[in-house]
Amino acid sequence: MKQFISVKDVTNINELVQKALAYKANPFMDRQLGIGKRIGLLFLNPSLRTRLSTQVAASNLGMEAIVFNVDKEGWALEFEEGAIMSGNTVEHIKDAAPILGQYFDVLAIRTFPSLKNKEDDYSEMYINQFIKYAGVPVISLESSTLHPLQSFTDIISIQESLLANPLQVNAKPKIVLTWAPHVKPLPQCVANSFSQWVNAWGAADFVIAHPQDYELDEQFTKGATITHNQDAALKNADFVYVKNWSTYTDYGKVYDNDPSWMLTDEKLATTNNAKVMHCLPVRRNVELSDEILDSANSLVSRQAGNRVWAAQTVLSEILKSSR
Ligand code: CP
Questions:
Q1: Which of 7, 63, 133, 136 is the most exposed place for a label (fewest CB within 10 A)?
Q2: Which of 48, 150, 303 most suits a substitution to test ligand 1, by most atoms within 8 Å of the C-beta?
Q3: Does domain 7-146+307-321 have CATH number 3.40.50.1370?
């Protein structure tokens, strides 16, 4: 693996999941792999799980991880080619990234979208400029449109749950991604990325439920059944992934924040005793009810724990490719 920006960087999802579960069973089995190697974790936006799970993953592989909160501690970076830097930006990415590439063997970057300009966000300029100028492998810690480490974790968590509670022979799990209300406009990254991974995995009956006008970019959702009827979608679901996102077509808006889209026990009763997933952080009793989050159906905490094994697997694949 030369980089990890989307599911397109993965040759075989099932093999990668097996490696992640092997790391979960034996976290230190490759503790020599990263000795003498260093990863730079660059955050242009906040994080809890992504930052810490990647640090733990690097440590399990014997690798040193250094975190740099670019948004708070670094110079304001310019990403536009040919920019006349007479405004607020202080350092161009084409100057900064090659230096970071000399300090680190691998760079990992979190850059959220602006949610103001769809074309800019969906061009993935920030992460692409790092890739262009860093000269070392780049891992996405969530970009403007995708969150691949989260989605890999999500598939690991689904597969782990299925191994513990197998469905009937030859049955595909029904996975429902459902929109949920939120207090502010959020990126489409998690929903885009989850859709892209489940579609690429191809081992599920995949349904996306959202209110009218919350359609996601078809490049990620193509292959899924899409409905505005949450009740119909939830029927007999085995996994329900709850996530808010802002509008894609009329970009970055909140049209309708209908609280009736929040998952409740009553709705969950129509599923096949579904496991409930969320990437976190979650707004309790806005996106997801306490009764669900604190129930035995919730996979949320285990899912967040699995972030370590996803990151460790990706790091190990990148380290092995660069030997
Ligand atoms: N799910 C996730 O990416 O969490 P953080 O934003 O805390 O890293």
A1: 133
A2: 48
A3: yes
